[in-house]
Amino acid sequence: MRNFLLSTVATILGGAAFAAPAPSAELPKGAAHNIVLVHGAFVDQTSWKPVADILTKKGYNVTLVENPLTSLAADVDATKRALAKQNGRTVLVGHSWGGVVITQAGNDPKVSALVYVSAFAPDVGQSLAALAKSGPATEGATAIHADDKGDLTIDPKVFPAAVAADLPAHIAEALANHQLPLNHVAFEAPVDTAAWRDKPTFYVISTKDKVIAPEAQKFFADKMKAETTDVAGSHASLVVHAKDVAAVIEKASFVK
After folding, report:
1. What are the pLDDT digits (tens) for 119-139?
2. I want to staple 189 with a disulfide (CB 3.0 to 4.6 A). Which of 6, 72, 95, 98 is the partner?
3. CA distance linking residue 116 with residue 37, whole number of Å
């Protein structure tokens, strides 16, 4: 299933599934050279490809983390392995569930700034499950169901409108029918670190999001005292509004 999704998204977005294009520009003096992108649940790292391509062409060293989605610890380990390979200051970015991951993994000394894109931002002791219960109910969140193994997915009939309403229908349907499940143990695991308490933080709010309510996103951003940017997009705004998202990440790269 992962290979199908990789090939589908790669075809949709044009280009290779894993490799970003070679840098074609020299970064301005003072910018962090490294960007690490952490994807959310139900999709894989190719969801970041439009943003990665933009940043790579500007000269950034971009790494796409492949989350196992089997537990919070496993996804944090994957992110920490990516951070260990970076040389110098690094901007760590998370989308959706990826916000939980970067909250836990972002205390790495190489991380100079955090960027949350339509993402959950727990505090110490909070889990994604707790955040989902405390926030406004959304069409996407209420359509999340577990199978007999405890793997969570969004009802494929609801997914296109709730998650990716601003993507072409055939693309949204393909993603809906080939989701990568998030195991319930990840959903229920609390973080024991809140890296945003000690790191400069940015937040991209998707004002048409039907998975994480825009009001909840604003709550997260205000709690973290993050610098915010609004985009008029769905939960898939990292694809549809890739230029705007990339611009926020680029701004974060100049934080020291």
Report:
1. 999 999 999 999 988 778 899
2. 72
3. 10
